[in-house]
Amino acid sequence: MNRLWIENGIFVTMDEQQPVVKGHMVVENDRIIYIGEAAPQPEPEQAERLNGQGLLFMPGLINTHAHSAMSLLRGYSDDEALQVWLEQKMWPMEGRYTDEDAHWGNSLAALEMLKSGTTTFVDMYDRMPILAKVVEQSGLRGVLTRGVIGLCSPEEQTAKLEEAKQFAKEWNNQADGRIRTMLSPHAPYTCPPDYIERIVAAAHELDLPLHIHMSESAAEVQQNVNDYGTRPVEHLDKLGFFSRPSLVAHAVHLNDEEIALMAARGVAVSHNPASNLKLASGVARVPALLAAGVTVSLGTDSAASNNNLDVFDEIRLAALIHKGVSGDPTAVPAIEALRMGTVYGARAIWQEDQLGVLKSGMKADFIAIDIDQPHFYPQTDMISHLVYSGSGRDVKHVWIDGRQVVKSGTCLLLDEEKIKAESQRSFERLLGR
Ligand SMILES: N[C@@H](CCSC[C@H]1O[C@@H](n2cnc3c(=O)[nH]cnc32)[C@H](O)[C@@H]1O)C(=O)O
Ligand SMILES: [Zn+2]
């Protein structure tokens, strides 16, 4: 039995009932068992005690769209349009990856995510067993899916789908339940309709959710209309995609009918503001999506189009850019942006009953921010400070499933120096291959 009793802390809970608590939190094994202003009664026995003075505690951040292994390609191709970046820069480099490269890219991402306060992430890529092992070791929580590109022979399509199914079956609920799995056609423009239908059928067979890149650029939407006579949302709907719980990344170019259809089907969105700005894909219609009742969460996309994995950046961008493009300073208020990185993230991966809120009975996935720094003074509205002044660099401690994984900025379960050195060597080998 492990017990942790935090005293004297400020807790930004994301719980509508008591949004900010100054006081105590008690964790037993993987769960929060108490949070409140008064000291817990009776006093927890044999608990490790932590003085929360100078710390702000909040739910761990949830990154709902990433490609961890691509961390090795950070800074390799900047300032290009999506299709050029993807087809001419990323794919050739990814084609040269070995298992070892994937391991170091994934480890680098795990290190960066943990240290900047992400406790759960969604990842779509290949060589997924390698990432699953990194998740297992690092203590992270992940929703993992072997993404498949269908621009290949029917035999290769089948082999990729089988690999994706196998991975999903083998790893679902592994790592003490911290790993969940999904299936994912990469995008409507990289998977022919009949292949998407086969993937949807497999998701029904295995009872899994689906993930996909959708309506990221205007060119992609136009191509979908030219090739299939419909825009991507209707196209996927006709293929049965939304008959499964689904999470779509980007969703930048949507019309009102598409937003209404997504709301009706319960489709969740991973909004990736930094990646969309950098690739000049456009700005997603987040206020309209939220108004329609669509769950909007936040993702970094990969470090090759971001170029970091700091979800605080996405929170801040989400709170800023929609004001800028709409001319309405009340668009996406701070608290709503913070929800997108926590509660709505949990909802987008169908784990809102467990994650995203600090409340008795929830999983003990939480982070401690060092607020004894100039940019957090005067200590007034801490939600405003987190969104508009904070960053992942302010994260001091991280717990996942009640286990401390980052202590005073150091990852307890990963070898930081080795990961940095091996990532550097992997990248140099990739360049020379
Ligand atoms: N290599 C696999 C597919 C891996 S899915 C992950 C893919 O998503 C690509 N990717 C990363 N970010 C984006 C994005 O924003 N839009 C579209 N594709 C992306 C990434 O380069 C990678 O090729 C196959 O051949 O089946
Ligand atoms: Zn992506």
TrEMBL record:
Residues reported in the UniProt entry to bind Zn(2+): H65, H67, H213, D301
Keyword list, A-Z: Hydrolase, Metal-binding, Zinc
InterPro entries: Amidohydro-rel, Deaminase_MtaD/DadD, Metal-dep_hydrolase_composite, Metal_Hydrolase, MTA/SAH_deaminase
Cleaved signal peptide residues: none
Cofactors that this protein relies on: Zn(2+)
Enzymatic reactions: S-methyl-5'-thioadenosine + H2O + H(+) = S-methyl-5'-thioinosine + NH4(+); S-adenosyl-L-homocysteine + H2O + H(+) = S-inosyl-L-homocysteine + NH4(+)
Domain of life: Bacteria
Cofactor note: Binds 1 zinc ion per subunit.
GO molecular function, one term: 5'-methylthioadenosine deaminase activity
Domain Amidohydrolase-related, first and last residues per copy: 58-405
Binding site for substrate: E94, R146, H186, E216, D301
Its EC number(s): 3.5.4.28, 3.5.4.31
SUPFAM superfamilies: Composite domain of metallo-dependent hydrolases, Metallo-dependent hydrolases
Biological role: Catalyzes the deamination of 5-methylthioadenosine and S-adenosyl-L-homocysteine into 5-methylthioinosine and S-inosyl-L-homocysteine, respectively. Is also able to deaminate adenosine.
Family: Belongs to the metallo-dependent hydrolases superfamily. MTA/SAH deaminase family.
Protein name (Swiss-Prot/TrEMBL): 5-methylthioadenosine/S-adenosylhomocysteine deaminase
Species the sequence originates in: Paenibacillus phyllosphaerae
Gene: mtaD
